[in-house]
Amino acid sequence: MRSSILLAGASFGRACGTVSSSSAASAPISHHPLSSLLQSISSLTSQSLLWDSFVAYSSLRLHSPPSFLLLLPICSLLSCSSSLGALPQGRQLHGHLFSLGFQEDPSLVPRLVSFYSCCGAFEEARAVVECSISTLCLSWNILISGYVRAGSPELAFSAYEAMVERGVAVDHFTYPSVLKACGEMKDLSKGRKVHERVIGGVLGWNLYVCNALVSMYGKCGDLIAARKLFEEMPQRDAVSWNGIISAYTSRGNWDEAFELFERMRVDEKELNVVTWNTIAGGHLKRGNSLEALALISLLKRSGSSLDFVTAVVALNACSQLGFLRSGKEVHGLTVRHLFHEIETVQEDPFAEILFEKATTQNLVSWNCMISGFAALNWLEQTSQLFRDMVLSGLQPNYVTIVAILSLFGRVADLRHGKELHCYITKKHEFEERRLLWNSLIDMYCKSGRISVARKVFNLMKDRDEVSYTSMIAGYGMQGDGLTALKLFDEMIDRGIKPDSVALVAVLSACSHAGLVIEGQMLFGAMASCHGITPKLEHYSCMVDLYGRAGMVERSEVIMSTMPVEPTAVMWAALLGACQVWRNTEIGERAADGLLKTKTDNPGHYVLAANMYACAGRWEELARVRVMMRDLGLRKAPGCAWVSLGDGFHPFVVEDRDNGCADEIYRWLGRLTDHMRDAGYVCDRNSGFHE
């Protein structure tokens, strides 16, 4: 294997060398500095563009960078190959690692094992582990869990034995996979041997290991050992209870399972839908259909989300009892839930197939599909579905229109929004639907057409707090804080009591317009005049208000004295204000506070890095970069969506795939020249400057 890998490495090196600077694919990239190339590779791999990523890496090699700079892009390429199951490309990368001397790098060996396991190449994954000189257990754990997932428990146990024989320390991630393999094999003797080793180590009462032991004994049929271990566990979670209940139910011992379930309920232990389904199914099998339905009813009333196993049990129970009406209700809930689940995971073809196969496409099913697509911001699909609905002869109701208008507002699709406005005005049944007119106002405000929104607002006969809040927010976005304040006063004069959202809108309007005194007065009068206790979002508005006005000291005081912990968004607002007003002292404290929140927003880390760069704290800047790398966060490339009349088109930084790319970049060059002539100077004191 080693010789084949070395040959692959030589092949990869030749491939890198043959990509010339005149190549059409790599020419735009090869002229960039190393940092830009590294960013390009990171961005391309995150989008699963494997071929383009390899082209960018080849261009990087042309610059002859130090070997250590190649480590991170290779990791990105390997992860991308793994997610796509690109075995030949991954093998090529593996060989390339030998030529660079990285074959024993501790960060790469687990990635290689994971790659080969994901691709089903377990012989190569095993070879990587066995050839490694590392004594860390991570690579072995990945291999063992990979065998288990692939349905090869015997090989998983064999790898575990080899791991122990080599003297590699076993941890609490190893045992659950090994014990699961024993359970799958129904090999009680091997499971007991693993248990003996657990008892002799330091992980005897680790929760995850104990749960795996209970499950193993249950699958192997030793219910006495499973129950004894379960009762002796110092702590239990939902997995523990599910494991022991499943052990009894798999052997048909329903009385013990029911008794354990009642203990969970009496002791107020955590109950999840899996446990409920198991017990309800047990009652159904024993002919207790009413008890099964009663349990499902309790589950629904508890606020837990029902799944399709619940629906199957409920439908069977209704069938046995002859409850036709209840069965229809369960069926309707199931279909709507199925549409919702499929849409929320963004699998539109499956939702559409299910919808098309439905024997009756009624208003509810149409609304489910339209609302689902709208929630995912799929503009074209939503618009087409609405047209199909109208052409089918089915009249949309106000629920349909509100869902679509909300989408048009979020994506600022004014053209389609106007068409829908015309449709609404032609339908007399919509005249008294205040929710519709509020949605229209919101759509026009978010699209920047505040004057049209005001006309709709003025025509409304029955305005409520939502109508006023939408208009106040719209004027706030336009920077017209004075008009927003006038509307707020008018709202109060008409006897409409503002709610928490209205206060957020008016405070935000003051912030965008620089109306500090007015914002202070409103915030101070929230409790006394409006009976609203300031919440986190109101404090956030005040932090932004003072920050935009350059009063960053007051922003910091508010954050330190408010009754709740500042959020990452608040720290980021303060940090951004400090950068604008060049206050590095408070900015450094804000950056420290932001990092302590452990935010998962890459933009927040970029803000902190830029502040550390301005303050000359290079060690902290490096720490931020390391944190982003460890968390798998990347600075997302800039992207804009532009409507050209025939739909929306994306424009992404560094994108050369657009058919008009050459002309676009020429115009960008001219704009850059105009900006420079106008006196713009790029701020290069940035930790992430590109």
From TrEMBL:
GO terms for biological process: RNA modification. InterPro entries: E_motif, PPR_At4g14850-like_plant, PPR_rpt, TPR-like_helical_dom_sf. SUPFAM superfamilies: TPR-like. Keywords: Repeat. PROSITE patterns: PPR. One of its GO terms (molecular function) is RNA binding. PPR repeats lie at residues 136-170, 206-236, 237-271, 272-306, 362-396, 433-463, 464-498. This is Uncharacterized protein. The keyword Cell wall biogenesis/degradation does not apply. Gene3D superfamilies: Tetratricopeptide repeat domain (1.25.40.10). Pfam families: E_motif, PPR, PPR_2.
